[in-house]
């Protein structure tokens, strides 16, 4: 049976996770076994549960108990369900709730990069992407457009940041991903080479191949490297890659936002020309 609790005290410590803890506090690097994240909206919560994420508590608008959160509540067992009218929840959290449902969950343990690369053909590597909106959008495009996995450099923003999860529409729970825990580009590039990947740096340079070059589609395993907002990829990263790839532009436009560029790159490069058997 669900444990429904009407909010009467804004200072209840059980509500800290929703109202007072920062994203960095939720990550809880000093005690990773108790690290958490917030999933927002029924669809995102369902996808997190489908991926095996463990719920801790929920905060939701009262009307959703028998509405759009009913199935979620049934899946979550006897965790605390905190509830109140939407104006009270907005006052508590300090932001409007998307569809009036939040769920605190334990952070899953991330796999080693080798584990998610082992059977992948097309992967995205994100170098120092700092904006959670861009990160979430890239995840959504990667999941939709044939990427098998995502690797993030240590300086990337948290992929389980509330906004990143929401913008991704929960695809952070559908596509395998993890962080490269050591320096970049090495030894991460070495691992990609060891596993047979060619690397394609998305960069604005003269010595590039076009994104529709047949050689790219012919690569059985390809890692698409995207750089940080504004500065793009580091020169050391570009120099290490097998290809430097440019998206042709018109009307004098010199570049796309990294999230938009990722969608173009994944659409074009996510296909494999020779249709070989899975690795």
Report the biggest beta sheet as strand number plus sense, adding barrel if it closes.
7 strands, parallel
How many DSSP H or I helices? 12
Strand % is 15-25%
Q: What oligomeric state do these chains adopt?
A: single chain
Rg (CA only): 21 Å
Question: Percent helix among the residues?
Answer: 25-40%
Q: Could you give the order of strands across the largest sheet?
A: 8-7-6-11-9-12-10
Span between termini: 46 Å
Identify the overall geometry: elongated
Summarize model confidence as the mean pLDDT.
Answer: 90
Poorly predicted spans: 275-279
| Beta-strand segment tally | 12
Topology pattern, helix = H, strand = E: EHHEHEHEHEHEHEHEHEEHEHEH
Describe the structure concisely for a colleague.
This protein is of the alpha/beta class. Helix content is 31%, strand content 20%.
Written account of the structure:
The structure is a single chain. The chain is of the alpha/beta class and 279 residues long. Helices cover 31% and strands 20% of the residues. Strand 3, helix 4 and strand 4 (80-84) form a beta-alpha-beta unit. It is elongated.
Task: Give me some keywords for this one.
alpha/beta, five-stranded mixed beta sheet, 31% helix, elongated, disordered C terminus
Please outline the helices and strands:
Blueprint: E1 3-6, H1 16-19, H2 23-27, E2 36-40, H3 42-50, E3 55-61, H4 70-75, E4 80-84, H5 86-93, E5 101-106, H6 113-117, E6 122-126, H7 132-144, E7 149-152, H8 162-167, E8 177-179, H9 188-194, E9 198-202, E10 209-210, H10 214-218, E11 222-226, H11 235-240, E12 243-246, H12 258-269
